[in-house]
């Protein structure tokens, strides 16, 4: 087994690192996950994405003809690792990592021409309309309906937990076009501008008091049939292909490592209850344990990346990485709040008292969603049990 990167990949890493050092101020919070961020952080992210686009780094994994850089999976892994460690704003993953690759596979020439340049240049942002109030883990039970009427589909129903629906220009969504068919077979994949009459959204405020996701309502929303991607009633398979991108989880591994490195530095220099944190046995043991765990997480992520780099599709390995890293992020946040004591509970909005920019108080709440979004930890464990361990379905 060879764990090293090639000299070319190491040179690429150094180039990104230098770019990030110049472009990402370290004394501000840019929103680690790209969602639920303040208007100021959102605007910083938009400007940053345009700079990435100017270097052909926004969609490095896309073919050159569509504005990408023909880069391999491991280069994407390196890039995402460096960006997350530097706390850089993460690009609009809905456009760059999900919809773009799907349009390349299933889109018509016209759809590619219409949508890919806007994503590659960071001019147009997207959101993902999959989950519904009654359909999350069991997504194929979704009920939002699209009925053909002349040259349009007319959409009625509701989506929920839609990240960025309040800021995105477009939504890609799954709708039911044949209510009589078996549940996976009556679903279609549609592209809907969020400015269409009848499209409305209501904020859902998370427990960290952030507006990241929304409820979205459709009342007779008319979308031209040209906005159907792939065949009618075959949208489930189009939607599933969305997963065909770099999904190693390396960003989360790097973000946890960054938090831990900051925490170690803090422990060295701080004291609690009259004693140095750096000499506190409990804090030392906890930090050592978490550093080991974060290294394990990094290699789980590399494993998924290297499976993809071989041209294979990771299966339960992605669930191992996703489940482990999202739970690790929660353990790191908890350790931070405990080790820092009272200052650990102060959020970034109170810079006078906040330590380490209030990262840990915020992370303590925000990381909770990580074990739900993109498939809950229970669902990941089911996948590992069935596909990884060959246990029977329950
Ligand atoms: C931060 C965040 C961002 C999100 N962004 C988006 C977005 O942009 N677009 C979008 O479409 N959705 C988004 N979601 C929604 C997310 O995909 C769903 O919340 C997730 O799939 C779980 O679905 P649910 O909330 O309906 O829970 P449910 O599926 O109802 O699950 C409820 C509980 O039951 C458990 N459970 C369910 N089925 C099983 C089973 N078979 N075996 C064992 N346990 C089970 C679950 O693990 C969970 O604990 C987001 C969610 C979060 C937290």
Low-confidence stretches: none
Largest sheet: 4 strands, mixed
Mean pLDDT across all residues, rounded? 92
Bound molecules: flavin-adenine dinucleotide
What features would you describe in this structure?
The chain is α+β, with helices and mostly antiparallel strands. Strand 9 (271-272) and strand 10 form a beta hairpin. The protein has 11 helices and 10 strands. It has helices at residues 7-23, 39-54, 73-85, 93-106, 109-120, 235-241, 250-269, 281-309, 316-340, 359-366, 377-388, and strands at residues 126-129, 145-149, 152-159, 170-176, 187-193, 199-205, 211-224, 228-229, 271-272, 275-276. It has a 4-stranded mixed sheet with strand order 1-4-5-8. The chain is 44% helix and 15% strand.
Descriptive terms for the model:
394 residues, 4-stranded mixed β-sheet, 11 helices, 10 strands, 15% strand, globular, binds flavin-adenine dinucleotide
């Amino acid at each position: 087994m060879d764990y090293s990167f090639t000299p070319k990949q190491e040179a690429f890493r150094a180039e990104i690192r230098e770019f990030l050092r110049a472009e990402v101020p370290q004394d501000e919070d840019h929103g680690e996950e790209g969602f639920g961020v303040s208007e100021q952080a959102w605007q910083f992210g938009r400007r940053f994405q345009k700079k990435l686009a100017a270097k052909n780094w926004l969609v490095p994994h896309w073919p050159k003809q569509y504005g990408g850089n023909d880069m391999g999976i491991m280069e994407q892994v390196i890039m995402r690792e460096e960006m997350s460690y530097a706390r850089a704003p993460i690009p609009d993953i809905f456009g760059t990592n999900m919809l773009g690759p799907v349009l390349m596979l299933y889109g018509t020439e016209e759809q590619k021409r219409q949508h890919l340049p806007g994503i590659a240049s960071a001019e147009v942002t997207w959101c993902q309309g999959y989950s519904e109030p009654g359909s999350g883990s069991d997504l194929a039970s979704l009920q939002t309906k699209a009925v053909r009427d002349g040259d349009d589909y007319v959409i009625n129903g509701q989506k929920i937990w839609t990240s960025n629906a309040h800021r995105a220009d477009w939504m890609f969504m799954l709708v039911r076009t044949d209510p009589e068919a078996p549940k996976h077979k009556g679903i279609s994949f549609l592209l809907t501008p969020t400015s269409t009459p009848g499209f409305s959204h209501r904020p859902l405020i998370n427990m960290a008091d952030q507006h990241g996701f929304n409820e979205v309502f459709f009342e007779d929303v008319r979308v031209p049939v040209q906005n159907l991607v792939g065949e009618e009633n075959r949208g489930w398979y189009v939607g599933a292909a969305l997963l065909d991108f770099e999904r190693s989880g390396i960003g989360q591994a790097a973000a946890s490592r960054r938090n831990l490195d900051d925490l170690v530095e803090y422990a060295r220099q701080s004291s609690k209850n009259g004693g140095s944190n750096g000499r506190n046995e409990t804090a030392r043991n906890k930090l050592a344990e978490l550093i080991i765990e974060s290294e394990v997480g990094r290699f789980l992520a590399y494993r998924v990346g290297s499976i993809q780099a071989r041209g294979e599709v990771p299966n339960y390995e992605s669930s191992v990485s996703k489940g482990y890293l999202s739970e690790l992020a929660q353990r790191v946040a908890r350790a931070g709040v405990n080790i820092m004591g009272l200052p650990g509970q102060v959020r970034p909005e109170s810079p006078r008292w906040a330590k380490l920019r209030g990262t840990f108080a915020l992370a303590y709440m925000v990381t909770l969603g990580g074990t739900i979004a993109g498939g809950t930890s229970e669902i990941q464990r089911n996948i590992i049990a069935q596909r990884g361990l060959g246990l029977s379905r329950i």
